[in-house]
């Protein structure tokens, strides 16, 4: 029995090692290409060792696009969208989980149904609405359509419903607490792990957003990093070393965000397996 257990555990570890390698290798290869000249991109056999062109390639990026300005714009967009989504999703999730009001289930199902609609279908009407309000070429126009996040509302609703007993809410009401006081003093501290999970999801999704930002942003001073990087790919002779160098440095903030909040992220995932 012990041998079978060890044998099974060996395959589990082997699978995890292979899966980890497959997940990490694209990022490692991106770093390798960022340190090599463009010719290394199509070399046979493929180059898998870092070179010495990292600084040179990054300098070429700085000459082509306003890299740090685009990074700052992207950071502003991601932070604002993440904070607004966390606020709206947590309040809406609290209302759907702990309050009774007419049409609650219909509203909740309607929000969930928007998740199955491809975002490309709403691109044209959203563009005309943003243009009508004069928000083209503004960071607010690039972020406003992401403020309402159906996935965030669903996650918060489920987390609050399972983590906060109804008796605790009723006891707070008997003590004279308002609904907002209950949310601020009771709900908010309990849902911090879910906050971290949703925050990482929204931040990374917004950081990688391209289609909408490419549609509404035309002023180079308003470019986010994804739009700025795409502007380097305008000729048939693409410098892949320079391009991947820009992508590599644009990925660093995402790694920093995950390292900062990974403990809360992991605790929210594993919380359901521990009583």
Descriptive tags:
transmembrane; 275 residues; nucleotide-binding; MetI-like_sf; MetI-like fold; ATP binding
Task: Describe what you observe in this structure.
InterPro entries: MetI-like (IPR000515), MetI-like_sf (IPR035906). This is Sugar ABC transporter ATP-binding protein. Belongs to the binding-protein-dependent transport system permease family. It comes from Lentibacillus populi. One of its GO terms (molecular function) is ATP binding. With 275 residues, the chain is mainly alpha-helical. It has a domain at 66-231: MetI-like (MetI-like fold, Orthogonal Bundle), CATH 1.10.3720.10. It is built from 13 helices and no strands.
Count of helical stretches: 13
Oligomeric state of the chains in view = single chain
Class of one domain in CATH? Mainly Alpha
Q: What does the overall shape look like? A: globular
Topology, number of strands:
0
Mean pLDDT: 83
CATH homologous superfamily identity of one domain: MetI-like
Q: Give the name of the CATH architecture of one domain.
A: Orthogonal Bundle
**What string, H for helix and E for strand, traces the elements in order?**
HHHHHHHHHHHHH
Uncertain residue ranges = none
Briefly characterize the structure.
This protein has 275 residues and is mainly alpha-helical. The protein is built from 13 helices and no strands. The protein is globular, with a radius of gyration of 23 Å.
Can you lay out the helices and strands and say which pair or pack?
Layout: H1 2-34, H2 54-64, H3 67-98, H4 104-113, H5 123-132, H6 139-143, H7 150-163, H8 166-174, H9 179-190, H10 192-207, H11 211-216, H12 225-230, H13 240-270
């Amino acid at each position: 029995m012990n041998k079978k257990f060890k044998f099974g555990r060996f395959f589990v570890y082997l699978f995890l090692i292979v899966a980890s390698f497959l997940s990490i290798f694209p990022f490692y290869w991106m770093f390798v290409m960022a340190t090599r000249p463009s010719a290394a991109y199509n070399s046979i056999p493929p180059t898998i060792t870092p070179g010495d062109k990292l600084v040179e390639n990054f300098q070429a990026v700085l000459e082509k696009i306003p890299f740090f300005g685009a990074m700052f714009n992207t950071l502003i967009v991601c932070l604002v969208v993440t904070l607004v989504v966390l606020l709206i999703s947590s309040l809406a999730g609290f209302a759907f989980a702990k309050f009774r009001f007419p049409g609650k289930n219909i509203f909740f199902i309607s929000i969930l149904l928007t998740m199955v609609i491809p975002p490309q279908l709403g691109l044209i009407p959203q563009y005309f609405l943003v243009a009508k309000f004069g928000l083209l070429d503004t960071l607010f126009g690039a972020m406003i359509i992401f403020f309402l996040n159906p996935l965030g509302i669903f996650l918060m609703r489920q987390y609050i419903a399972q983590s906060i007993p109804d008796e605790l809410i009723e006891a707070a009401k008997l003590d004279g607490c308002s609904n907002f006081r209950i949310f601020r003093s009771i709900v908010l501290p309990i849902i911090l792990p879910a906050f971290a999970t949703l925050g990482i999801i929204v931040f990374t999704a917004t950081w990688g957003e391209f289609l909408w930002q490419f549609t509404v942003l035309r002023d180079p001073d308003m470019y986010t990093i994804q739009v700025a990087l795409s502007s380097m790919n305008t000729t048939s002779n693409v410098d892949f070393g320079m391009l991947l160098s820009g992508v590599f440095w644009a990925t660093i903030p995402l790694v920093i965000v995950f390292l900062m909040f990974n403990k809360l992220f992991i605790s929210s995932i594993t919380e359901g397996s521990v009583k």
